[in-house]
Amino acid sequence: MAGFRSLARQARDPRCDLALRRYSLRKCLERFAPYGHRATWDHLCSRAGFEPEDRSPDPARLVAALDELEEARSVWLAYEAEFAERRKKEKHDGLRRPGSVDDWHRLTWGGFGVAWCDDPRVHPHEPLAEVLRRLIAALEREPGAVCPVCSGERLVWMHDLAHEPSSGPVCTSCGIVVPRPVLTPVALAGARRGRLLVSA
User: Please, which domain of life does this record's source organism belong to (predicted)?
Assistant: First the structure.
């Protein structure tokens, strides 16, 4: 099974058939898709300027989508390396019990679904790398009351999500499932109340 880097090389290679290059880019999303496969694909296509169903996109646009994905992946891999180093140090210092960020992080190892968007057509508009930087910054500071990606204040608790955790606070502005560790208990309670209002 090909890894992300070999798939990315294939997607970038002008000697390859365009259909294979597009297919390779799609396969990259099986290794790294911050919003989930479908939402990340929709995001990359809209930002690069081709339709998700376009079987023969302009090669330059295809490479632009790949560039954005690779930059975001490098941001996330750097965070994971720092995270692993921190956990190693904590274990060495006798802190064996992981915190809530660690629990969340285990569900997103490798970067799949880091900022899950349950509706593949609703996702942040900013570059993926910027979204991940904002999310990482939120994970590294005290919890807040708004979406760490877009600062949206309307968070609604959704159930039956197509990703773990299967329920959680969703930002109605940018569509991400906001990681619980970045929100205060008051913000989480408000999201739950918002769910009750939506259901009524």
Answer: Bacteria
94 torsion bin: left (phi>0), alpha (psi -120 to 50), beta (else)? left
State pLDDT tens for residues 34-45: 999 999 999 999
Residue closest to 152 by CA, chosen among 133, 127, 131, 181? 131
pLDDT band at 200 (very low <50, low <70, confident <90, very high): very low
- Name the 3-class secondary structure at 178: coil
Could you read off the pLDDT of 149-164 as tens digits, one per residue?
A: 999 999 999 999 998 8
Q: Give the range of the structural domain holding residue 152, as residue numbers without chain letter.
A: 4-197
DSSP E strands: which ranges in 76-167?
155-158
Q: If DSSP states are collapsed to H, E and C, what string results for 13-52?
A: CCCCCHHHHHHHHHHHCCCCCCCCHHHHHHHHHHHHCCCC
Note if the bond before 165 is cis, omega within 30 degrees: yes
Listed residue (71, 106, 88) closest to 179, CA to CA: 106
Q: Which one has a higher pLDDT value, 123 or 105?
A: 123
Cα–Cα separations (whole angstroms), residue 59 to 7, 11, 46: 15, 9, 15
| Number of domains comprising the chain | 1
